[in-house]
């Protein structure tokens, strides 16, 4: 049994990761400032409230729990907001991550699993993206994540820290046991927005851009189930503990779906037409992002098992119908 510090453990992906870690016999310690996370989502281990920019608080938490590893999910991740307020993203995502890395290395914590993003690749004309593709982010969110990747490589040069970086694509779905799920305020992700529109929690879903160079004019994204995603993080942690070297992996399915295809799938699962209106493109949005993930399969033995579009929507739909769910 090992103790793992999970930054952002009160958020969507982090809370699912904490559940998976606990199931595997680890002790997940959530570190979260609750700016976007929820205390109700901390159910599987100790909770330490704090900010990534607060070095004394981080030092205190490392000293108390003595984690063997860090899983770093805490970040701002709204592409549109990153275009409007880039300084916010560089300060929170980059300076915060550097402060965390300084605290981890000072405490002698040897392993680091980092939540990165396909947004580091930028616009590449629908190329199947793998780990060899050039990184050329077109928004501050992607730029901030690429900077942390660079930082991790440099921090690891002296051998005190090994890391696994996961560049993942659009995360969807929810815990089928309905203990945790996807809940943002404001909500920015396509599937929960569509489900909110079905439930009448918003008048309509806005389709941002219908003139992209795709078959139906809307953006194409690769969707991966949150349970498959956190399973990869557990495999990455076990790989590091077993003595594996620092690595970078994409996480996706290799299949992209357009916004309109997702809307049609939500309508099919819920048996309700999704009310939708067309809007203008958002700055910073790429045309298509689809993952090649063979490296994760070859090195970690990771295969997405729940990442079909109907399954992801059905699991999310179950969570959205939970008593007490509020958007």
TrEMBL record:
Catalysed reactions, semicolon-separated: UDP-alpha-D-glucose = UDP-alpha-D-galactose
One of the record's GO molecular function terms: UDP-glucose 4-epimerase activity
Biological process per Gene Ontology, one example term: galactose catabolic process via UDP-galactose, Leloir pathway
Required cofactor names: NAD(+)
Database matches in Pfam families: Epimerase
Similarity comment: family membership: Belongs to the NAD(P)-dependent epimerase/dehydratase family.
Subunit structure: Homodimer.
Name the record gives this protein: UDP-glucose 4-epimerase
Organism (species): Halovulum dunhuangense
């Amino acid at each position: 049994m090992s103790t793992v510090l999970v930054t952002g453990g009160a958020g969507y992906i982090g809370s699912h990761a904490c559940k998976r870690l606990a199931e595997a016999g680890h002790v997940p310690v959530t570190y979260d400032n609750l700016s976007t996370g929820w205390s109700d989502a901390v159910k599987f281990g100790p909770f330490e409230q704090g900010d990534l920019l607060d070095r004394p608080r981080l030092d205190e938490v490392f000293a108390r729990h003595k984690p063997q590893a860090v899983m770093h999910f805490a970040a701002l991740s709204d592409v549109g907001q990153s275009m409007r307020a880039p300084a916010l993203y560089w300060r929170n995502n980059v300076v915060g991550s550097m402060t965390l890395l300084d605290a981890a290395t000072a405490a002698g914590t040897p392993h680091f699993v980092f939540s990165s993003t396909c947004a580091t690749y930028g616009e590449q004309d629908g190329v199947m993206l793998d780990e060899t593709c050039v990184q050329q982010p077109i928004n501050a969110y992607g730029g901030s994540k690429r900077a942390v990747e660079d930082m991790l490589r440099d921090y690891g040069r002296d051998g005190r820290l090994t890391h696994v970086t996961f560049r993942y694509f659009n995360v969807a779905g929810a815990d089928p046991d309905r203990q945790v799920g996807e809940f943002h305020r404001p909500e920015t992700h396509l599937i929960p927005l569509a489900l909110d529109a079905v439930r009448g929690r918003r008048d309509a879903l806005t389709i941002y851009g219908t003139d992209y160079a795709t078959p139906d004019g809307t953006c194409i994204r690769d969707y991966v189930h949150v349970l498959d995603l956190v399973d990869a993080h557990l495999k990455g942690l076990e790989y590091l503990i077993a003595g594996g070297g620092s690595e970078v992996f994409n996480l996706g399915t290799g299949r992209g779906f357009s916004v309109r295809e997702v809307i049609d799938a939500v309508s099919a699962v819920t048996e309700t037409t999704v009310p939708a209106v067309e809007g203008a493109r958002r700055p910073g949005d790429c045309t298509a992002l689809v993952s090649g993930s063979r490296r994760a399969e070859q090195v970690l033995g990771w295969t997405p098992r729940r990442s079909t579009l109907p399954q992801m929507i059905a699991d999310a739909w179950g969570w959205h119908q939970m008593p007490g769910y509020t958007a």
